[in-house]
């Protein structure tokens, strides 16, 4: 392969000398490149063929799409004010408590999932927790917790906390695995125990990233809290779902605008906090 | 560093000034009170009878889920294929839409600041609305089915791909761009030969990463009627057929693991 690639390069150079220049391709090996192109084409054909579209239904829905766009022009914040406020309050409280609980639980799991500080059995156990928590969408976990804990924000809080564990613990573990080992050695050389090493050598190195990630997760949890209400786990999602199924599009538009505004605000705040910690 | 002196002249070192100390204390106080307040709101809205029952319900659930009804897996291949299609075609749609938006949103390639803020608005609204909510809206408009799922995933991906891509564009090296424009290249040619080659690897990496996330998200779109394995999940839950639900869970788990592995390998190969 290397011979042919060199041959290709020299041909390219010859052409360039004659003033005909072509950009080198993204994938150097021509056989792999064409195989990829062919594979993509075949897949697209198969996939598009299996998508069934009911055009009559789409045409029927076009009117609703227009209604919806019109509703976005005139969002109705007031007629369901009580429901919206209740939903928002539930979402926000769920977000905060679940983030705090999730992070507190994620720290031990993250430590256990870092290969350089945890023994193998603990490592495998913690990695399994992370894999399970990350694979399943919040909404699937919410279904199970709603069955267990009943309807309401408590199930939502547990769901978000569980999802937070997977997210935070994975990133924290990666951060711990990349840390500067010299500082750990230095602290160990003073005769420090495991706890002292963690506290004095590991924690200061991962803290800025941990704070940044926590802010980011707060943001994600709010976004997710707007969804898990669909399956009965409390929050603004329940209000949104109700308004959509009642065809009260102007209320739905108002809720969506509120969600966008809050996400914008929290993103802005979290970028400030991250700049300040790093 | 704050050093105070005691009456007999020995200096005492402290880590922080007392002002900072108080501020930190105050921040903790506010934070913890807020947390307790939030907890109170949640606990007021919770039926504690149900929560106390959780252990029994949980073990009941597990006993209903096991053993999984393996025969059911044979009915799941078609929905799984749909799920993968939703994720892949949705990602393709999202990438196609995000690509121009990212160029309009990057500070160094945008034609006008006004266009830039419009592009940023598109990115933020797409990012803040979850794909399930997009799917709910689209199902009411387009009717239930795979198409609504594809478009929902596509719309949600614009924000993610767009944001990461425009950040990558803003971080490019200005030298090649200057070199290309010094040859008298037009604006489009500068983009094509100066900017594009620099962001291409990042772009490919971001796309594969988003595909991996989309596989995960597309597994639940069926809950609101947008096609894929979520439809089967919803049907099984409504029938209380928990031994089918566990088969679906295992299937989702396996698919996500494979897609994560593929995406990690591809990203490793690119970067």
Question: Could you explain the architecture of this structure?
Answer:
The complex is a heterodimer of chains A (278) and B (271). Chain A is built from 11 helices and no strands. Chain A has helices at residues 2-17, 30-50, 55-73, 81-112, 120-135, 138-149, 153-177, 181-189, 194-225, 236-245, 249-277. In chain A, helix 6 (138-149) packs across helix 7 (153-177) and helix 7 (153-177) crosses helix 9 (194-225). Chain A is flat. Chain A starts with a helix and ends with a helix. Chain B is an all-alpha fold. Chain B has helices at residues 18-44, 48-52, 54-65, 77-105, 113-128, 131-142, 146-170, 174-182, 187-218, 229-238, 242-270, and strands spanning 3-5, 11-13. In chain B, helix 4 (77-105) packs parallel to helix 7 (146-170) and helix 5 (113-128) crosses helix 7 (146-170). Classes of the chains: A mainly alpha (278), B mainly alpha (271). Chains A and B meet through helix 2, helix 3, helix 4, helix 5 and helix 6 of A and helix 1, helix 2, helix 3, helix 4 and helix 5 of B.
Order of helices and strands of chain B: EEHHHHHHHHHHH
What's the shape of chain B?
flat
Extract low-pLDDT stretches of chain A.
none
**Multimeric organization:** heterodimer
* Low-pLDDT residue spans of chain B: none
Number of strands of chain A: 0
Let me know the average pLDDT of chain B: 88
Just give the CATH class of the largest domain in chain B. Mainly Alpha
Strand content of chain B: under 5%
Largest sheet of chain A: none
Outline type of chain A: flat
The radius of gyration over CA of chain A amounts to 26 Å
The CATH architecture assignment of the largest domain in chain A turns out to be: Orthogonal Bundle
Q: Which pair has the most extensive contact?
A: A-B, 63 and 59 residues
Number of helices of chain A: 11
The span between the termini of chain A is 45 Å
Helix content range of chain B: over 70%
């Amino acid at each position: 392969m290397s011979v042919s690639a060199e041959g290709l390069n020299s041909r390219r150079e010859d052409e360039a000398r004659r003033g005909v220049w072509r950009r080198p391709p993204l994938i150097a090996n021509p056989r792999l490149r064409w195989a990829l192109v062919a594979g993509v084409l075949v897949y697209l054909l198969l996939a598009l063929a299996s998508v069934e579209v009911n055009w009559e239904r789409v045409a029927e829905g076009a009117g609703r799409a227009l209604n919806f766009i019109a509703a976005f022009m005139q969002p109705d914040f007031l007629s369901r004010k009580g429901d919206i406020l209740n939903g928002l309050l539930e979402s926000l409280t769920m977000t905060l408590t679940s983030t705090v609980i999730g992070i507190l639980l994620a720290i031990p799991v993250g430590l256990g999932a870092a290969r350089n500080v945890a023994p193998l059995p603990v490592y495998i156990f913690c990695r399994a927790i992370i894999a399970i928590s990350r694979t399943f969408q919040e909404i699937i976990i919410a279904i199970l917790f709603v069955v267990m804990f009943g309807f309401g924000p408590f199930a939502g809080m547990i769901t978000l906390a569980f999802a937070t564990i997977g997210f935070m613990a994975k990133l924290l573990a990666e951060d711990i695995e990349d840390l500067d080992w010299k500082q750990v050695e230095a602290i160990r050389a003073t005769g420090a125990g495991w706890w002292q090493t963690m506290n004095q050598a590991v924690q200061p190195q991962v803290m800025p990233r941990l704070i940044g990630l926590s802010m980011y997760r707060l943001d994600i949890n709010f976004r997710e809290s707007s969804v898990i209400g669909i399956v009965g786990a409390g929050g603004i999602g329940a209000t949104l779902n109700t308004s959509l199924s009642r065809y009260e599009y102007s209320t739905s538009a108002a809720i969506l605008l509120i969600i966008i505004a809050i996400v914008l605000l929290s993103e802005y705040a979290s970028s400030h906090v991250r700049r300040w910690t790093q | 560093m704050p050093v105070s002196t005691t009456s007999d002249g020995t200096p005492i070192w402290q880590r922080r000034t007392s002002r900072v100390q108080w501020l930190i204390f105050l921040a903790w106080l506010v934070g913890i009170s807020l947390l307790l307040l939030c907890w109170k709101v949640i606990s007021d809205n919770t039926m504690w009878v149900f929560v106390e029952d959780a252990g029994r319900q949980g073990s009941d659930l597990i006993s209903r889920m096991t053993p999984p009804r393996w025969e059911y897996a044979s009915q799941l291949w078609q929905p799984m294929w749909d799920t993968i299609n939703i994720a892949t075609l949705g990602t393709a749609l999202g990438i196609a839409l995000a690509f121009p938006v990212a160029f309009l949103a990057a500070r160094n390639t945008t034609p006008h600041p006004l266009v830039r803020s419009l592009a940023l608005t598109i990115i933020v609204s797409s990012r803040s609305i979850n794909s399930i909510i997009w799917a709910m809206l689209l199902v009411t408009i387009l009717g239930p089915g795979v198409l609504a799922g594809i478009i929902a995933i596509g719309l949600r991906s614009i924000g993610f791909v767009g944001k990461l891509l425009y950040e990558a564009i803003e971080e490019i090296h200005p030298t090649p761009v200057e070199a290309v424009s010094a040859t008298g290249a037009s604006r489009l040619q500068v983009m094509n030969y100066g900017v594009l080659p620099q962001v291409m690897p990042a772009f490919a990496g971001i796309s594969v990463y988003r595909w991996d996330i989309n596989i995960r998200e597309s597994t639940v779109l069926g809950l609101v009627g947008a096609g894929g394995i979520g439809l089967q999940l919803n049907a099984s839950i409504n029938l209380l057929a928990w031994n089918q639900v566990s088969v679906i869970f295992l299937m989702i788990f396996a698919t996500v693991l494979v897609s994560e592995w593929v995406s990690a390998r591809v990203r490793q190969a690119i970067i």
